Amino acid sequence: MEKREHFKFSTGVVVYPVLFILIIWIVFWFEVRFGFNFSKYGIYPLSAKGLRGIILSPFIHGDISHIYHNTIPLFVLSMALFYFYRHIAWKIILYGILISGFLTWCIGRPSYHIGASGLIYILVSFTFFKGVFAKHYRLIALSLLVVFLYGSMIWYTMPVEEGISWEGHLSGMITGLLFALIFRKEIAKPKKFDWEHEDYNEEDDPFLKHFDADGNFIETIDEVGVEENQTIVNYTFKIDKENKE
Fold first, then answer.
1. pTM to 2 decimals?
2. Cα Dmax for the chain
3. In whole angstroms, what is the distance from residue 99 CA to residue 244 CA?
4. Would you say residue 200 has pLDDT above 60?
5. DSSP state of 42
6. What are φ and ψ of residue 113, in 5° steps?
7. What is the rounded distance in angstroms from the CA atom of residue 59 to the CA atom of residue 204?
8. Are 16 and 83 in contact (CB under 8 A)?
9. 47 or 201: which carries more pLDDT confidence?
10. DSSP conformation letters of 169-180
């Protein structure tokens, strides 16, 4: 079985987030440049027409402030996703958009829900909970960093401010937690030393055999190895017949 290599930097770690953000900004520029309003293509809960927003809403933003505040966290978190969880990164993004969008469609207020903030909450939730569940020191450090940078976002999963889709945020948070539970085996496992394994036996450890019960070093000589490495010298005697006569 091919061993997966985790925590490997590649061009996709930067290129994929940049392309995604570039598409978002191109859509916003198109709206402003040609006077369109794509808000009607967002998620409108409990309506057949609103289902199209599940796929389209992450690319639609209301104003420059909205898209700006989503750009930086989306770039940082998606880069972290492709670096630390590159084997499942696309699953998290694509399935996350579908599942969180559908949850928003089910529980949202009767208005259009737009923006990539739902995806951001997926990444925050998944990154945090996966680091806690994995017990890998790098992933735990990433979880702590996410809490430090975006921990205050938890308040916006509740109706604390009018005009903000807390339903989309809550759906993203739930989806991220769900993925952290589902993809338990698709992550790097913490490295275990020999003495941490259950079948470890001190008597079979070649390193410990060099020490006695009191911890003193035992110097041993491999007699077989010495014999094999000995240099054998052969002398050949030749009789000088002329001098003999």
1. 0.74
2. 127
3. 107
4. no
5. S
6. -110, 120
7. 60
8. no
9. 47
10. HHHHHHHHHHHH
Non-local CB neighbours of 164 within 8 Å, separated by 6+ positions: 156
Cα separation, 137 vs 215, whole angstroms: 31
Q: Specify the residue for token string 């020490």.
A: 211
Phi, psi of 237 (to 5 degrees): -100, 130
Q: Which token pair is 228? A: 């094999």
Task: Confirm if 176 and 123 have CB atoms less than 8 A apart.
Answer: yes
Indicate the range of 15-29, 56-70, 126-140 predicted with least confidence.
126-140
What is the rounded radius of gyration, in angstroms, for the C-alpha atoms of the chain?
32
Residue 211 forms beta bridges with which residues?
A: 217
User: What angle do the packed helices 89-107 and 166-182 form, to 10 degrees?
Assistant: 140
Burial (CB < 10 A; 0-12, 13-18, 19+), residue 125, is buried
C-alpha 98/C-alpha 103 separation (Å) is 9
Please give the backbone phi and psi of residue 211, each rounded to the nearest 5 degrees, phi first: -130, 145
* Alpha helices, H only, 108-165: 117-134, 137-150
Tokens of 99: 């599942």
With 0-12 / 13-18 / 19 or more C-beta atoms within 10 angstroms meaning exposed / middle / buried, residue 134 is buried
Instruction: Report the chain's terminal Cα–Cα distance, integer Å.
Output: 80
